[in-house]
Batch of 3 targets.
Target 1
Amino acid sequence: MSNSFFPRIRMVSALVVTLLLAAGCGGGGGTSSDVVGSGGTGSISGVATKGPITNATITGYGISGGQMGSQIGSAITDATGHFTMPIGTYAGPVMMKVSGGTYKDEATGSSMGMASGDVMTAVMPSVVAGANINGIQVTPVTAMAQTMAQSMTGGMTEANIAAANAAMGNYFMVSDILHVQPMNPLTTGSGTGASQDARNYGMTLAAMSQYAKTLNMSASSAMVTAMMNDASDGMMDGMRGGSQISMSMGGMMGSGMMAANSGTSGMATAMTAFVNSSANVSGLMVTDMAGLMQKLSSTNGKI
C-alpha cells in the first residue's frame, strides 16, 4: 500500500463531512441558505399597522410568474410596529406577509393577538437589487390590494400589483397605500397636523375595528381577513366570486355570513360610530371625515 493512500482517505473524508454539513444547513431550518438573494445589502423597512403590531413576524417573498415564490427575508416588528427586513441581492416584485404579534385594537382599546390563520399582506411592484427601501406600510388595505392583484388575470404581475394598489387607494381616498402612514386615532391630537390621506387611512382601519366590535368578534383581525376576501374579486359586496363570505364571530354568535354592504355603507356607519366614540382621541370630528364617509355610503362596491 502506497504512502499516498492515507492522505487521499483524509481528503475524501473531509469532503464528505463538508457536504453533509452543507446539506444540514439547507434543510428548512430558516438559515440564510434557504433564502433567495441572501448575501447582499438590500433591505425593506416600514411599519405593520392594525394598530401598530408588536412582535409580529414579517416574511418577504419573491414573486415569480405572478405567484408567491421563495422566501427572501424575514424580520420581527418592534413595539411600534416598525421592521427592517434584509432581502440580500433580490430584485423584482415582492410580497410581504405579517403573522402573529399583538396590537391595540382601536375600537375596544384592548390588546389583541392576530388570530391563528389571519395575516396581513402587501405587494410591491419591484425592488432594485441592493436598494434600502424605507417607509413601506403593511396594513389591512395593502392586504386587500394583494388579494385583488393575486386574483387578476396573470396574478401578481408588476402591472397588476400597481393597478390593485392604486385602485384600493382610490376606494378609501388614500393617494399611496404603500407609503402614506396611517394616522393613529388612539394618539391624542394625532389628527390635527395629519394630511387628509393619513386621516382617511387611519379612520379606515379604525372603522374595520369598530365593525368587528359591533359583530362581537373576539379578534378584529378576522374582519381584516373578511375584507381581504371581499376585495379579491374587485367588488366589495360580501362575496368572493360567486360565494358569500363566511366570518368567524365571537361570543354566542359562532359564525355568520358577511353582509353585502360590509365594505360600503357598513364601513361608513362604523366609521361614524368610531369617530363619535370616546376611543377616538385624534381630535377629528365627523365633518373632517365627511368626504370618505359619503363616498363609502354611495358606492356600489366597485373597486
Target 2
Amino acid sequence: FMVVFSTVISYLLAPNIRFDLLQVLLLFAGGMLVTGSANAVNQLLEKDTDAMMQRTAKRPVASGRMSVNEAWVFAGITGTAGILIMYSFSAEAAWLSLASLILYGFIYTPLKKINSIAVLVGAIPGALPCLIGWVASFGEGNDNSWTGGWIMFAIQFLWQFPHFWAIAWIAHKDYSKAGFKLLPSDKGPTRFTAVQSVMYSALMIPIGILPYMYHISGITSMWIVLGCNLFMLYASVM
C-alpha cells in the first residue's frame, strides 16, 4: 500500500497534473497489481524459507493456503493487468513497472541468499514507484522532464537502507536461520551496520531539500522533510 501511495503522490507532484479521482484510482489499481505480482513471485521463490521464519510463516504459499500453481497464475494475471494499466498512462511507466517487477521478483529475491548487495539491488525497485508515478504524468501538453522523478527516486532509494537494515537488525536471528545475508557486516548487528545507516540517513538531508529547489514542493514541506530527516539521523546514531 505504501509503495503504491508513493507512486500516486509522485504522479500528483508532476507539473500540469490536476487531481482527477478516476485517474488516481486507476493508477492506484495499476500499482497494486504490479506490486502484488512482484510480492507473489517473491513469496513463491521463498516459500520454504518463509515457512521457517516467524515473521513470514503465515504467508499464503508458505502456510499452504495457496498452491504454487495458483500463485503463479495470480502473479501472471496481476502483473500483466498492472503493466497494461500503466501503459494507458505512458509507455515509460509501463516499461519501468516491468523492470521493477523483474528486478524485485527475479533478481533481488534470489540474491538475498548470496550476498548483502541484495539490499542495494532491492532498493532500486523499491524506489522506482516514485519515478513510475512521475513519468505516468507524461502526456500531450505535459512536461516530459525526468528530473523531478529522479529526485523522488533518490529520496526513497536512500531511505530504504536505514529502513531495511533496522528490520534486518531486529530479525537477524530469523534471517540467519533462513540463510539470508542482508546486513552489511558478516558478523551481524555491529557498529559497522550502524555507521552505514548513519551515512545514508545523513545523505537524505541534502537530497530532501531538492524538491524545494526544483519547485516540486513548497517551503513548508521542505522544513517538515528536513525535520523528519534530522530525526531519522538521530535515530540511526542512537
Target 3
Amino acid sequence: TSVLLTEELGPKREAWRWGDLHTHLFAHSGANGRLSSWLLNRGPFPARGDMVTLNVSGFDPGRPGDARTKYRAVTGPSMRFVTSMDDPDSTVIIAPMGQSGKPGNRHYDDMILHWLDGERIPLPLTREGSERIARQRVVLGR
C-alpha cells in the first residue's frame, strides 16, 4: 500500500491527503470524447469520507485501472434535503451538481462546492417564503 501511495502521492508522507487520491468526478453519460468531456464533466474534486462514514463516498479498490481510478468515489449522496413540518420555509436542500441539468446553463454546476462542503441552500416551501428569496420570476403562458 505504501508503494502505491508513494507512486501516486509522492515520497513525503506528511503531504499525503486522502482527497488527493479519493475524488469525486461528475461524469456525464454523453461525454465520450475530449471536447464533450471538457464541456460536460466536472472534477475531480477531493472526496471526504468512505463507505462507512457519515459523509459517505464509497469506492471500489478492486476496480481495474490505476490507483486514482480505484479510489475514485462511485457512490455518494445524490441529494440532501432537510425540512420541518412545523416551518416549511426553513427547508434546506443541496444536490451534487446544480439546479439545472442543462449543460451551458449557469446553474449546471452551481451547487458542487456547496455540496462538497456539506452546506445547504434555502428552499422555502410556501409562496410567501419563495417570493422573499426569488431573484427572477418566470410566467408560463399558452
